[in-house]
């Protein structure tokens, strides 16, 4: 019998794992759509396959197919199995990461899972090779118009997109208000969130720091769909033309949407709107390409490609971020790390 070439086997396995990488995302999406995590959580104890099948949102359920999906989810370490004390069969329970699949929890990632795996919003990834020319916007190639125009004329996708952004905001906000209090407790009295979306960030900041008067600023169609929020003002406009004046200007996941020249223009509008002693607070990914062991290292690199495909923007290293800050006429900056994908960059005139 021929001896198995271990190295060849490992290399093939690595490529096959990458080929089937899509399966984990789509099985995860399926689990969210079926509300599997909620069903097990609400059951209050490990649940048998038949009990799980009877409670799912899709009926009737083919038990064999559900078993095979659950087997894959267990392999993904999202759910655990144990022997049922009642009949000796398999019972399923939540593994620690599964709590992020439960709707209603402040750190739920359901909205991001659904948006990132939406068939249309995945389409630009199929044009990654064409984007190498530098003249092709993959989102436009896939869907016929820029991401901003597309969202403005597709309310259902815009809602999906905004819910995903709000989901990300909740994850970031939790770290921001608990780990970066000094960013806001420095005498800041007014704060405007440029590109504030549905206002998730401002709601968290307003609740944590009630002495700060908060405003969200975004495009008219975004502001029109944002909820009414107590103690928060809403203003519509275009950040490339002007930004409302405030003691601090806040931008979360904004600069990574744009190329360098556009970022410099946005930062200049912010600088014009700042009073003496004001600052810009940027919450964005800061790439450290040498750090391959950080839990978020792969996610940050993937986000960079996501920006390249969808908006023509990019995630930046500290050196690249400093280049923008200097070009916009600011004097200094300070970076604070937190337990989120993004970092906080305070920029001073």
From TrEMBL:
Coiled coil: none
Keywords: Alkaloid metabolism, Methyltransferase, S-adenosyl-L-methionine, Transferase
Name under which the protein is recorded: Uncharacterized protein
Entries under PANTHER family matching the protein: O-METHYLTRANSFERASE (PTHR11746)
Annotated Gene3D superfamilies: Vaccinia Virus protein VP39, Winged helix-like DNA-binding domain superfamily/Winged helix DNA-binding domain
Domain O-methyltransferase C-terminal: 125-331
Enzyme active site: 256 (proton acceptor)
GO biological processes: alkaloid metabolic process; methylation
Superkingdom as given in the UniProt entry: Eukaryota
InterPro entries in alphabetical order: COMT-like (IPR016461), COMT_C (IPR001077), COMT_dimerisation (IPR012967), SAM-dependent_MTases_sf (IPR029063), WH-like_DNA-bd_sf (IPR036388), WH_DNA-bd_sf (IPR036390)
Any one GO molecular-function label of the UniProt entry: protein dimerization activity
Residues of the O-methyltransferase dimerisation domain: 16-102
Organism: Papaver somniferum
Pfam families cross-referenced by the UniProt entry: Dimerisation (PF08100), Methyltransf_2 (PF00891)
